[in-house]
Task: structure prediction
Amino acid sequence: MSAGMELIGTETRAARFAGLQLTAVGASVTRNADVREPLLSDITLPIYPFYVRVRAQDSHPVTARLSILSAARLATVMASGSRPRVDWSETLATGAPILRSSEWRLPSSSCPPPCAGSFAQHNAGLVIYSASAGTDYDLARTLAHESVHLAQHTRDAVLDAIPASDAALARVGPLGRTLSRFIVVDPFMPLRLIDEGELRVRGGTRRSSWYETEARAFAPGGEIR
Ligand SMILES: [Zn+2]
Result:
């Protein structure tokens, strides 16, 4: 999985998509090993807001499921006051929606006034960047950093959120099992919650969180100021 993040950290556009998918394959293999299935039997690849599932032995080997969390986030952001636009070139190069905000800096809880906000943010499988891209910060470097967060999100989804969604829907009965072929109900990201919780207990800044520390290790620079 870290090989995928290393690829993203090279800051080249071509490596970003490959890095995200490599992270997803690594997480899928880990998950398959955990449940004692053949390592490549069930692979999840993210094309946000979808999770493409590849099961070579299945009668439907390739299926796509909508992430409820990512779809909800995308709908919320697109309808927000700042009316961001889709940057299609970066979106296709990443495998996740990359949006350009019309705001110079993005309001950020980790960078409250007098700090002017953040360059870019990842949330639930999509990245939004501010209008100051290319003027006082480097967009490629910033997108590399946010793409490591995308990879972290994907790892959490494959290891925890997707299996939890499948298990919960299976308990609902036949309707749930049918739904689980089309959607992933993934509002819970356990590792992320543990990270946030640990940060709160320690009273640390967001910058010192495990997620930020990991993202900086693979893609230095390109974070909030
Ligand atoms: Zn970050």
Summary: The chain has one domain: 2-218. The pocket of zinc ion is lined by residues 145, 149, 212, 215, 223 (CB under 6 Å).
